[in-house]
């Protein structure tokens, strides 16, 4: 039986919601075969019984493709369209309110609540003139929709703050020091690779930090 498989071409085709669902499963499971099945089930939208009919080599190739996507270093995604609405990255960080900063600082280090941090960084564009735009005011309770945003925007915004070297990035880096915490680098991983070992995104992002000369201390 032939199974039609549509593999995402980039992180822009993977939603934050799907990633969060995968992370919840990963937190409580270490069986690599099970995680490979759940990875394909969630990111490709295939049923478990359908996945069992796919060739073992194909399963290996698919998990490798998905894993490698999360080692990308996307440039900051300033705008994206979600459900027909154009969203823009916060134009001026210096104008961020204290409430926005607190929510961003609180949630950007917690993958389960990452959509709340993204609701601070990306908001609907209400007016645009050439390359400049004005975004909607921040509403703390209006964040569930951000679960549908693309992962390339999520990852690029996080890397942007590392690059910026702001106090916020130092807060995020503190999560790296605590092995017992489910920190942002541990969360932003896909655990399967073709050799049967865990392919952690952590090493890749640490290398980025070294390149940017941002201290982990």
Model description:
- Helix 2 (32-44) packs across helix 4.
- The protein has 217 residues and is an alpha+beta fold.
- Strand 1 (79-82) and strand 2 (85-89) form a beta hairpin.
- Residues 178-206 and 211-217 have low confidence and may be disordered.
- The chain has a 4-stranded antiparallel β-sheet.
- It is elongated.
- It contains 10 helices and 4 strands; from the N terminus they run H-H-H-H-E-E-H-H-E-E-H-H-H-H.
- It folds into 2 domains: 11-72 and 188-211, no CATH class; 79-177, no CATH class.
- It is 47% helix and 10% strand.
Write a brief caption for the model.
The protein contains 10 helices and 4 strands, in the order ααααββααββαααα. The protein has helices at about 15-25, 30-45, 50, 55-70, 100-105, 115-120, 150-165, 165-175, 185, 200-210, and strands spanning about 80, 85-90, 120-130, 130-135.
Q: What percent of the residues sit in helical stretches (DSSP H or I)?
A: 40-55%
Largest sheet: 4 strands, antiparallel
Overall structural class, as computed from helix and strand content, comes to: alpha+beta
Calculate the mean pLDDT score and round it. Answer: 77
SSE series: HHHHEEHHEEHHHH
Indicate the overall shape: elongated
Taking all Cα atoms into account, the compactness measure Rg is 18 Å
Spatial sequence of strands, sheet with the most strands: 1-2-3-4
Helix run count = 10
Secondary structure elements and pairings:
Layout lengths: L15 H12 L4 H13 L3 H4 L4 H14 L9 E4 L2 E5 L8 H10 L6 H8 E8 L2 E4 L15 H14 L2 H11 L6 H4 L13 H11 L6
Antiparallel strand pairs: 1-2, 2-3, 3-4
Helix pairs in contact: 1-2, 2-4, 5-6
